[in-house]
Amino acid sequence: MTPDSSSARKTTVLLADDESAITVLFEMDLTHRGYCVLQANSSSEASKISADFPTPIDVLITDWRMPDLSGDELARRLLLERPEIKIIVMSGHPDAADVINSFAKNQALFLRKPFSPARLVESINQLLNAPGKADERAA
What we know:
Blueprint: E1 12-16, H1 20-32, E2 36-40, H2 43-52, E3 59-63, H3 71-81, E4 86-91, E5 108-112, H4 117-129
Parallel strand pairs: 1-2, 1-3, 3-4, 4-5
Helix pairs in contact: 2-3
């Protein structure tokens, strides 16, 4: 699903990063492109937003290292409530790319910081348009 699809519902993303400059930049760009963006400055805030949000959240975009809970742990928690959610983990840390290996194939992507808003949109589209089986693991 893309923001321009024939469906009346916009693609909804939950953006979680403790660096407000990053969330503001990506929130502005994604909103301009037609996405519904839910913004959180911590994993606990993202969990609460997810629990309170009544309609589907299509993609979780989360920083890997946050003060209260890592991005991959946040993703695992949200998957219990929202098994169809797609995940983008972002980080500048060299070892962070391995965290997506425990998720189902076509469920998660890793983006190394820094990256452009256009690259983020490409990644969202890649995840939402990728066929996948829940029992396959990411390569």
